[in-house]
DNA sequence: AATCCGGGGCC
DNA sequence: GGCCCAGGATT
């Protein structure tokens, strides 16, 4: 389909709105593709307010591709700690090293090369290409789905191949090729500030008289999704082992949550278990060998930790041992004062908060 | 096409 | 409790 004057009119209205109402965000003060890249990865499935401080800290420590590539994956994960979706950090690091090795250390400026980098899909490639070089690639993110599905009352489910294709073609038709950067930022800010998921500001919306969903009185029915998220329960039993001033960690390395992060020795069970049941499991002996821990303290009991697709019920036991069984050799033994050097999950962080609290009381 | 990957804020 | 957020990779 060819672009029409009417299509450009929508872009013009969006950009006019944007010029008056845009958010002041640090990654908009630059056209450095590296900084834009970092901001876009941080903002994947992440609200601006949640990502802002991470962006400042990350850019401060890794101001260039070179600096990021030269760092260890561990340190990069440490700067990502608590933000979630940790493959973003690992891919960021791997791509920085790729750029040093294969692109002369210069962030690539061709859309196809950008798209080929780990952790960069259609959305992020379009965002970087348009924001850094004003290249005419349309962004299609959650805001775009919402704004355009409402404006045109499009009910194709957005989580299907057909829906993704339809919305991409629509976005491609609506973008003003000579003003791609501002157009893309405008749609997203409009979606984030006016055409919001709940309680959109229809009464003050400049598109109210054009919006087919508003005319139909069912704005909140858009965008249409096919799938519902379902969740499973998991039961984690952690042991914060104290052996004099030493403790033990392991690094998660399987295809599971928190890959690359550190944690205490863990027994995962199929259902909720108490300490007596736990201590009779083979996994228990695999951690402690033939000794019995002393001073067992249940610091967190059935702590509920909700993720997107699973709910974790976690027990954290603080236990003291008098001598070290060789069974513990498979763990990383560190001095307790070094714990802060390791990237940990939010759940483990919650444990430390609780521990500090119980000390204060 | 379906599922997985975090954490937080909102109603 | 369910939904969504400047999505992408894996199966």
From TrEMBL:
Sorted alphabetically, the keyword list is: 4Fe-4S, DNA damage, DNA repair, Glycosidase, Hydrolase, Iron, Iron-sulfur, Metal-binding
Molecular function per GO: 4 iron, 4 sulfur cluster binding; 8-oxo-7,8-dihydroguanine DNA N-glycosylase activity; adenine/guanine mispair binding; metal ion binding; oxidized purine DNA binding; purine-specific mismatch base pair DNA N-glycosylase activity
Q: Name one GO biological process term.
A: base-excision repair
Mind telling me which SMART domains this protein's record contains? ENDO3c
Biological role: Adenine glycosylase active on G-A mispairs. MutY also corrects error-prone DNA synthesis past GO lesions which are due to the oxidatively damaged form of guanine: 7,8-dihydro-8-oxoguanine (8-oxo-dGTP).
In the record, the note on similarity to other proteins reads:
Belongs to the Nth/MutY family.
The record's listing under PANTHER family reads:
ADENINE DNA GLYCOSYLASE (PTHR42944)
Q: What is this protein called?
A: Adenine DNA glycosylase
Q: Which organism is it from?
A: Macellibacteroides fermentans
């Amino acid at each position: 389909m060819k672009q029409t004057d009417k299509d450009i009119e929508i872009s013009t209205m969006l950009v006019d709105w944007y010029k008056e109402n845009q958010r002041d965000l640090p990654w908009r003060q630059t056209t450095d593709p590296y900084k834009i890249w970092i901001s876009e990865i941080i903002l994947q499935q992440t609200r601006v307010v949640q990502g802002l401080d991470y962006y400042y800290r990350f850019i401060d420590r890794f101001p260039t591709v070179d600096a990021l590539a030269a760092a260890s994956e561990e340190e990069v994960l440490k700067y990502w700690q608590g933000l979630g979706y940790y493959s973003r950090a690992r891919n960021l690091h791997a791509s920085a090293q790729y750029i040093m090795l294969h692109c002369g250390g210069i962030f690539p400026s061709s859309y196809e090369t950008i798209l080929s980098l780990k952790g960069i899909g259609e959305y992020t490639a379009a965002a970087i290409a348009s924001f850094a070089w004003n290249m005419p690639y349309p962004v299609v993110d959650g805001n775009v789905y919402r704004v355009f599905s409402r404006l045109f009352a499009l009910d194709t489910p957005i989580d299907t191949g057909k829906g993704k294709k339809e919305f991409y073609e629509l976005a491609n038709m609506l973008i003003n090729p000579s003003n791609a950067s501002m157009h893309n930022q405008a749609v997203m800010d409009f979606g984030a500030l006016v055409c919001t998921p709940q309680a959109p500001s229809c009464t003050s919306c400049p598109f109210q008289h054009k919006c087919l969903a508003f005319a139909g009185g069912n704005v909140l029915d858009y965008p249409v999704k096919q799938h519902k998220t379902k969740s499973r329960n998991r039961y984690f039993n952690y042991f914060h082992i104290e052996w004099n001033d030493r403790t033990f960690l392991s690094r998660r390395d399987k295809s599971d949550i928190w890959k690359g992060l550190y944690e205490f020795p863990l027994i995962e069970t199929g259902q909720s278990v108490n300490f007596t049941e736990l201590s009779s499991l083979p996994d228990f002996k695999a951690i402690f060998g033939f000794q019995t821990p002393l001073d067992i303290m249940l610091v967190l009991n059935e702590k509920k930790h909700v993720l997107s697709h699973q709910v974790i019920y976690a027990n954290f036991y603080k236990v003291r041992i008098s001598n070290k069984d060789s069974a513990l050799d498979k763990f990383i033994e560190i001095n307790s004062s070094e714990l802060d050097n390791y990237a940990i999950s939010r759940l483990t962080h919650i444990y430390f908060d609780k521990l500090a609290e119980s000390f204060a009381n």
